[in-house]
Specification:
By secondary structure, this protein is of the alpha/beta class. It has helices at residues 24-31, 41-45, 52-60, 64-74, 78-84, 107-122, 144-155, 172-175, 184-195, 216-222, 251-260, 279-290, 311-319, 377-380, 413-416, 421-439; strands at residues 136-140, 159-164, 200-204, 225-228, 232-235, 248-250, 271-275, 295-299, 323-325, 328-335, 341-350, 353-354, 360-363, 366-369, 373-375, 408-410. Helix 7 runs parallel beside helix 16. The protein is globular and about 70 Å long.
Length: 441
Amino acid sequence: MSESRLPPGRLEQKIRDHKPLYTEAEAFAEANRCLYCVDAPCISACPTGIDIPTFIRKISTGNVKGSAKTILDANILGYSCARVCPVEVLCAGACVYHAWDRPPIQIGRLQRFSTETALKEDADALYKQKPATGKRIACIGAGPASLAAAGWLALEGHKVVIYERKSFAGGLNTAGIAPYKMLADDSVNEIDWIRSLGAIEIVTGAEIGPSGSVTPARLVSEYDAVFLGLGLGDDTRMNVHGEDGPGVFGATALIERIKLDPTLSLDGVRRALVVGGGNTAIDAAHELALLGVRDVAMVYRRTSDVMSGYAHEMEYAKRHGVQIIENRVPTYVVRGDGGKLVALRAALAKDGKPVPGTEIELACDLVAIAIGQSKAGKIALEFQGVRVDGDGRVVVDAATGRTGHPKVWAGGDCVNGGKEVVNAVQEAKIAVRSIREALRG
């Protein structure tokens, strides 16, 4: 699949945007509510430190291009982060209006208005690339961390080659974001803009490893610096009988198919179960409900008050019919004639573990497993001097993003274990500053 054109007929296209783009009048009215606080707690709550009051003030004065520039200077993926950031627990969650029991400033929607408007109207006028330096940097993985790093490095005049093992670029933004927040087409638009910033090449279908199409030794030898934006690996398995077979999906794999695979059909799926209690589980359950699955429930091994998923996302999913089955652990996938999925057997849980003799059968036509993802540290270990911790995360100097190899930096999910896109951008920004210094000698 080309990253410049996605196939039509994808299920995600049936899902409505839950925070549509503001009109100019709506953006102007909302921007004029901002108090331009002296201490601006919203700035402190943003991992990339966007000067939020300033970009909002520029909207109110009609300077939309200047507003977008304020955002993108701090967060080069501000276009997608406007849609995907959990602003309810970050910038908007810190808004002073909360103390007065009044609605916070809709920072995410204003950011979307600013960046989307500016990139549509005059994207080329926002930045000018510096003269070519002759330096070459390789980015491994084409997700948000690598794209952010590539954009900033290209503006410095460096040549950047991004290697991606899948057939498309964008990582989580293209294949993992809930469609009611952002469609894959929006991710493609952002990738096209990043590529326009300078000498950036994206190579898809590239396997990194000693026996892969691109070896770590070659990367270190041929490039002046290497940035590891590896993301996370495959969905974690439940390791229960009957798990292998039709009807059982890893949650991120299912979401990817909903977003990108026009051959996926949910016809005949009336009852779906999603195992897990994190944000991926909520997204998968919510998407299935929005796509018309009549009965969607999340199966969680503890009580809902300790779920790791965001409360505001869970409330939104509940409004569309998603239910929670608490204190249950899957123990067996029940299959009928021809291996057809019939039910998921689940036991009562004590301290997250199944209690023998307490099983019930939950009838279902589809099961999505959202209990975590493997780490990508094995690839990182192929670079001499690079280490991973006990949880499989790449170890870096927090102040520089540098690994134990002098020519290798890292950032994003492979370092933080799976945080937000905005965190990946900030870690890329830290690494880019260090790479710039290293390339200057």
